[in-house]
């Protein structure tokens, strides 16, 4: 079993400094996660534009990509929109409305379809 720090002399690793040595930054408390150690250098946090509230460091949500090969389930001349993609089971309803959909030109398609969702060239 591991020794528990700072729980008295009987724990085997307790007492005066509890295994942290004497003095210094690490002996007192933990270092802040964004601390970079140099005053002159602009910190990573300051380089970001000022954003308030939750979600400050979250990546932008990208749309779900669908290749042309998956559109072969549609009949000739049919409309391809969010509802029809959900109906055919290509994407889930929750993901479609959360992230959005984009059709990419991966593969080939020999049918004439009316596409009503964003797509690449």
From TrEMBL:
GO terms for biological process: translation. Residues 66-117 form the Large ribosomal subunit protein uL15/eL18 domain. Residues 7-22 have a biased composition (Gly residues). One of its GO terms (cellular component) is cytosolic large ribosomal subunit. GO terms for molecular function: structural constituent of ribosome. Residues 1-28 are annotated as: Disordered. Belongs to the universal ribosomal protein uL15 family. This is 50S ribosomal protein L15. It comes from Candidatus Woesebacteria bacterium GW2011_GWC2_31_9.
